[in-house]
Amino acid sequence: MTGRTHDLAAVTALGAVVLSLPPRSVTLATVLVALLANLIGGITPDIDEPTAPFWRNLPIGGLFGRFFDKLLGGHRFITHSILGLVLFGAGVYALLEFLHPIMPRVDIHLVWWAFMIGMVSHLIMDTFTKEGVPWLLPLPLKFGLPPLKSLRITTGKAVENLLIFPGLAAIDIYYCSTHYGQLLSLVHHYLL
Question: What is the pLDDT of residues 120-157, one digit of tens each?
Fold first, then answer.
């Protein structure tokens, strides 16, 4: 999937979780940092690809991208597995613990969950692509849905651009329109 599809999938997944399990209390700072963390989580698995949008947006990102590509075993290796989820989850949690003193109004647990939801959404979306995902690394098996590779999505092609991306946008519009009262209540109760 392309970066924009992963971004939208991450936000869609986060919205579904928040509407299903609304937090008891949340600050505006937490909402903003959690949304940023969710978007970062949505593209984190692709840090193993030197040409990923994450690296293109940094001044010397190409250099770092090539380094991480080699360090992490190439594209769709450790960062696209349950092992990668655990490692990145632990690393991000440690980073949030370290940063918490300079952002005391931010609930780092909610931010961490937002990051992890973004990361998991990335892996789920990539499971539907022709390449599949090595969920059980170090076992050298790539999993994909549907099981027949010829029926899976080719990244950046018509099915993704004309069905998947608009489908995710439609889900977001549906959630917002059918849960408008709940969303408004959350905004009034928690943010105002």
Answer: 999 999 999 999 999 999 998 999 999 999 999 999 99
Residue 145 CB-density burial (10 A; 0-12 exposed, 13-18 middle, 19+ buried): middle
- DSSP-derived 3-state class of residue 59: coil
Record the pTM: 0.90
Report the candidate in 139, 136, 138, 116 with the shortest Cα–Cα distance to residue 127.
136
Task: Pick left, alpha or beta for residue 73 (phi over 0 → left; psi -120 to 50 → alpha; otherwise beta).
Answer: left
Closest by Cα among 94, 6, 87, 84 to 42: 6
Single-letter code of the amino acid located at 137: L
Cis peptide leading into 146, omega within 30 of 0? Answer: yes
Q: What is the pLDDT of residues 77-125, one digit of tens each?
A: 899 999 999 999 999 999 999 999 999 999 999 999 999 999 999 999 9
